[in-house]
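Sequence design from tokenized structure. All designs in this work follow the same two-part layout: the structure record, then the generated sequence. An example of the structure record is given first.
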């Protein structure tokens, strides 16, 4: 069994929409960029495994928020043996 560094770990990303889904397989750095882009440009919310990932950043111009988000997302992906991210439409709130 080969030991991969965390940067070489492959992340599966499933992006859902009203016509179905698209599945991507990317290295961690590229996956983080894809997840961030999908969130801010398409309003998608990422679930890493079964856990929702809440962005602190309010936009792509929020450098401090994006840095913190990137660190937290990387940690979540690195913790998983077989990381899977599901990107879904806007979250719906109560009340």
């Amino acid at each position: 069994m080969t030991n991969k560094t965390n940067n070489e770990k492959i992340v599966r990303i499933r992006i859902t929409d009203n016509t179905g889904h698209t599945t991507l397989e990317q290295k961690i750095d590229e996956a983080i960029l894809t997840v961030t882009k999908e969130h801010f440009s398409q309003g998608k919310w990422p679930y890493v495994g079964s856990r929702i990932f809440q962005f602190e950043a309010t936009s792509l111009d929020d450098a401090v928020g994006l840095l913190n988000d990137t660190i937290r997302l990387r940690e979540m992906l690195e913790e998983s043996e077989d990381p899977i991210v599901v990107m879904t439409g806007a979250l719906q709130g109560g009340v």
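The chain has a mean pLDDT of 88. We note this feature because it recurs in several other targets discussed in the main text.
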